[in-house]
Amino acid sequence: MNNYDIIITGSGMGGLVCGDLLSREGYKVCVLEKNRQIGGCLQTYARDKVIFDSGVHYIGGLEKGQNLYQLFQYLGIMDKLKLERMDEDAFDKIIISNDDNEYTLAQGYENFTEKLAAYFPGEKEAIKKYCDTIQEVCTKFPLYNLDEKGGLEEKQSVLDIGAQTFIASLTSNKKLQAVLAGNNLLYAGAGNKTPLYVHALILNSYIQSSWKCVDGGSQIAKLIARNIRNNGGTIMRNAEVVQLAEEDGEIKYAQLSDGKKVFAKYFVSNLHPAKTIELTHTNLFKQAYKNRIQNLKDTVSCFIVNIVLKPGTFKYQSHNYYYHKEGHVWNQTHYTEDNWPLGYALFITPFSKHKEYANGLTLFTYMRYEDVLEWKDTFNTDSCEQSRGELYETFKQQKAEKLIALACEKFPALRNCIQSYYTSTPLSFRDYIGTSNGSLYGIAKDYKEPLKTFISPRTKLPNLYLTGQNLNLHGILGAGISGIVTATALTGNNDIIKKIKHA
Predict the structure, then answer these.
(1) What DSSP designation does 90 have?
(2) What is the rounded CA–CA span in Å between residue 7 and residue 378?
(3) Which of 30, 162, 173, 200 could be joined to 137 by an S-S link, Cβ 3.0–4.6 Å?
(4) Does residue 29 contact residue 175 with C-beta atoms inside 8 Å?
(5) Are strands 103-105 and 320-324 parallel, antiparallel or unpaired?
């Protein structure tokens, strides 16, 4: 029972996709998940009978022939998902303080250009150039386009371009610059760090097509997990790995917190690479490699208010809102206690039983881990409940009221629509997702040191591989592609990519 071909630690999107692909290739796979619920950022939870997503509020690239569609089609889950296509003329609306406009970002590049040019009639050529460059950058990443050929050399020409620098080079219109970067909470955009390729790969996906998962994104994890089981694999929940035990230069078994040992020929870690190194207790990783991984900066964490709405009070809309205070689009993480928050996203929850009115919405903003250090020694999940104390509850309430008050400046009717609300902090993300500081999107990419943040799926331990958002890109698409990268590295078989492309 405790002997497998492949053990995967962590059931986030990367681990699940990797497990599904490998189980299709005939490997006996076991996925170990420390939480009660699988899925990492795909986890959902219900409050007052309203389903809220923990991290995945919308996804792109799901129209026939697009990259995520092809992956889901190959996995056999595309026609089983409950999806809603977002407003084709406005998947996102950008709001800037002291401006009454709601700038729309539309699906389809031609539509995107036309809709945005209506606000900036003298900037149409700049918007076209933006669109052309985004698409050109995406061609430099073969696996993003499900092309099995190509490597680092294709990417080299675009790795050291900053997103803010590129957008500023297109136009001197500060407002247009802010709109083009307006939804950068999607990738924790930082003006002095974020590479253009991160902006391009993510925005391209949404401009191609944007979708919401009706009744939550956990359906993706459940369907992939079912595939793994149907292929003879095992999913073990409440199974926290405390050691990946090395003997004679290879990992021999995963030791769980209850003392159980699970053996395999190969091991894949969907955890943060620094956490994976900690679990190995081996001296086979060179100190220089350990230092590099452990010193990489992670992206910021967040504070979330999930609002249960009074029935029939708040009209459902199939687009998102992103708000930022003027002049702060690229530095929203640099808030002070007085001016927090400098921006937020508003996601309206799609629910299969109600169409005209929404039953829930999410307010999402940045919060640094240092803001909750006072409670860092506490741990709280639904399978290991622990109170963080009254001061923590007061802290959360004060922050929630401040964020809601800012949202009500633009949506004044919202206040009277609120039935109840629930909050998440960096500690929630740390405890449920497993990052040491509650990081939203894993390792922060830096265009000034581009190669430093590229991490190989292979390690110095020949039977230990890495997968997940830290390898290349975060999000459902980014983590899904990392699963493909790891599966092909482990099997040495690029035919997996061909199968996906032609599914």
Answers:
(1) -
(2) 29
(3) 200
(4) no
(5) unpaired
CB of 162 within 8 A of CB of 447?
Answer: yes
Q: What is the pTM of this model?
A: 0.96
Q: CA 198 to CA 188: how far, in whole Å?
A: 10
List C-alpha distances in Å: 401 to 176, 365, 405.
31, 13, 6
Tens of pLDDT along 18-41?
Answer: 999 999 999 999 999 999 999 999
At 254, which amino acid appears? A
Nearest to 59 by CA among 237, 257, 212, 265: 212
Alpha carbon distance 278, 269 (integer Å) = 12
Provide the 10 A C-beta neighbour count for residue 312: 12
Neighbours of 490 (CB within 10 A): 22
Give the residue among 474, 465, 455, 502 at the shortest CA–CA distance from 18.
Answer: 465
Distance CA 219, CA 84 (A): 14
CA angle 45, 47, 49 (to 5 degrees): 100
Task: Quote the Cα angle for 266-271-276, to 5°.
Answer: 70
Where do runs of H (alpha helix) occur along 253-334?
A: 273-280, 287-295
| Beta strands, E only, 50-126 | 50-53, 59-60, 83-85, 92-96, 103-105
**Euclidean distance between CA atoms 39 and 42, whole angstroms:** 5
For residue 372, count CB atoms less than 10 angstroms from its CB and return exposed for 0-12, middle for 13-18, buried for 19 or more: buried
Q: Where are the alpha helices (DSSP H) in 173-324?
A: 174-180, 196-208, 218-230, 273-280, 287-295
Distance (Å, rounded) from C-alpha 106 to C-alpha 94? Answer: 11
Instruction: Give the span between the Cα atoms of 502 and 117, in whole angstroms.
Output: 36
- 199 CB contacts (<8 Å, ≥6 apart)? 134, 163, 166, 181, 184, 187, 189
Place of tokens 């230092």: 291
